[in-house]
Design a protein that fits this description.
mainly alpha, 12 helices
């Protein structure tokens, strides 16, 4: 049932998953220790609920624009379920904003293969990546897949390699101007860089450790399958196929380098992992025999039901 339903791209799919995101946000909000129901707080939470749903729709746009999956909604199903598995991601608004800016950057990075308006795409990407680093410093590492995409694209020249520095400087200048006007201080620049922490003590909580373990298992399982199929990928599709793999690796590094391990940093991994998992579902199974087709369908159905039900199971951890 789920395979058929989310194997298509219908408006009802987006509505259901958007409501699911709202449910996840409210779950994270009410699981927190302090709940402020003032008008200011309600407005802020309403804004971040809207941004969370917008992130889902933006993620879907990136997938469709760059043909990262077939015409289905498996990827955004995985993305929404992964987020609700870890409702703590909704409690860290800075990471939510940083991830939104990274998605805006990926929208441009993944489209560089078209070789149209390349300079503008590179500038936009570097601008959004630097903007994300204002909320989560190690987001700057996404500049690595940007440069990989520049190298991979047709007709690359040395001028395009310098454009990311312009985007970087633009954000630094704009934020410096704001800080001087608002706080009469330049101190933000010296506290911009976050310390690297390897303290995973918060992961001792089952509500964080179990979902993160599930996500890691998904990444290893689907990632191995994806890596094994690189040789059989058509040359036209291979650059984006590899680029997504690099993005996923950088996402893991970005999450590991965070100054505080709360579980919310895993949000950076969810978008590339969702695409990899969707590709795995699409390509799973041998073709040509009725028996194998039945096994394939049942496996996909079981996997999707597991992903949908796990967020509800984790509510009791």
């Amino acid at each position: 049932m789920l395979t058929s339903f989310f194997g298509k791209s219908n408006p009802i799919n987006y509505l259901i998953l958007s409501v699911f995101i709202v449910f996840g946000y409210l779950l994270g909000l009410f699981s927190g220790s302090n709940i402020d129901l003032s008008s200011t707080s309600l407005f802020k939470h309403s804004l971040f609920i809207a941004l969370s749903v917008f992130s889902l729709l933006l993620f879907d746009f990136i997938i469709r624009k760059n043909h990262l999956t077939k015409n289905n909604t498996f990827a955004i199903l995985f993305f929404s379920c992964f987020m609700v598995m870890l409702p703590v991601v909704f409690l860290n608004h800075e990471i939510l904003l940083a991830n939104l800016f990274i998605l805006l950057a990926l929208r441009r990075i993944m489209s560089l293969r078209s070789d149209t308006n390349s300079e503008k795409k590179i500038l936009d990407s570097s601008f959004w990546i630097t903007a994300a680093s204002l909320y989560y410093f190690w987001s700057l590492l996404f500049i690595v897949p940007l440069y990989i995409a520049i190298i991979q694209k047709p007709n690359t020249n040395y001028k395009q390699m310098l454009i990311p520095f312009i985007g970087f400087l633009a954000v630094v200048i704009l934020n410096t101007t704001y800080q001087l006007l608002a706080n009469d201080s330049f101190a933000w620049f010296f506290s911009w860089r976050d310390e690297i922490s390897l303290d995973f003590s918060n992961y001792n909580s089952a509500s964080i450790l179990v979902p993160v373990t599930v996500l890691l298992a998904f990444y290893i399982w689907a990632g191995i399958s994806r890596t094994a199929k690189i040789a059989s990928i058509p040359s036209k599709s291979k650059p984006n196929y590899l680029l997504l793999f690099y993005v996923s690796m950088v996402s893991i590094v970005v999450a590991l380098l965070g100054p505080e391990k709360t579980g919310a940093e895993v949000l950076f991994i969810m978008a590339p992992l969702s695409i990899i998992a969707a590709n795995y579902i699409e390509n799973f199974g041998a073709k040509g025999f009725v028996k194998e087709d039945v096994i394939e369908y049942r496996f996909k159905e079981t996997l999707l039901w597991m992903v949908v039900l796990l967020p509800f199971v984790f509510m009791f951890l």
